[in-house]
Amino acid sequence: MLAEMRHDPTVLITGASGRIGTLLRAAWRAPVGLRPLWLARRGPADILWSPGEKLPPDLPRCDTVIALWGQVTGTPEDLIANISLVRHGAALAQACGARRMLHLSSAAVYGPGTALTEDTPPTPTSAYGRAKLAMEAAVRALPRGATRHCCLRLANVVGADSLAPALRAQSGPVRLDRFAGGTGPLRSYIAPGDLAQVLRALSELPPDHLPGVLNVTAPAPVTMESLVRAAGRPLLWQPAPENAVQAVTLDGSSLAGLLPFLYLTQTAQQMIDDWHSLEMAP
Q1: ∠ CA 113-114-119, rounded to 5°
Q2: How much is the pTM?
C-alpha cells in the first residue's frame, strides 16, 4: 500500500528543444516541486535519444513521462510520424517505470466549433488534426499495463503557435483575417506558464484520476486581435478566405474540476505578459 502511494517527483519530458519545450524549460528553471529531466534528439537536453534507436541503458526511474514531441507541419506522410511516436513513448515510459504518461494532442482534432467538450465528436479539417486524432487512437490501442495514458487536447499556447512569429517581429504589421461580421479569429489559448502549472499538477495526480482525454485551455477564449494589441504590435486586416475558420474554442470545465486549486490567466494581456516573462528569463 505504501509503495502505491509513494510519489516520485522526477518527470521525463520529451521534445525538450521544441517551441513548447523551450518555454517550459524557462517556466521550470526555478524549483517547482518536481525534477524535470529533458529528452531530445539533440541538445540542449539531459538525455539525447531519437525514437527508433535502442533505449538508453541508464534511464532514470520516474513517475511521469510527458510527450511534447510530435510532427506539426509537413505532408500527411510526415504527420503520420505522430502515430509511431506513441509506441516509442510507451516503451520509454515502461523502461522508466512511469505510472502515468501525458501525450500532447491538439484542439485541431475537433475542427471548427465553440465550447467543444471532450465528448464532442471530433471532425478535424486539417491533416495535422487528423494525424493527432489517429495518435489518440494509437494511445487507446496500447495494451493495458502499469502506465496510465492521457491525451491532452491542447489549446494554442501563447508564444508557441502560428501567431507567435508575427508577434515577435520588429517591423511590419501583423495580418489577421477579418470575417463577414467584422471580427477576426477567436481561439482557445493558454499561457505557457499556466501550461507548466497544469502539467505539474497532472503529474502529481493519482494515475487512476486521469481521464483518457482532457482539454487543456484557459477558462475563456480570446481573440487573436486582443493578443496582437496586448503585444503592442500594429494590425492589418485582410479579408478572410472562404476556407478560413473563425472560431475554435474549448470547454475547460473538466480541467477545472480535476484541478480546482489552479488559477489560470484569462485575459490576452495576462497571457502575453506571461510569455514575455519567460522569453526574457535569464
Answers
A1: 80
A2: 0.94
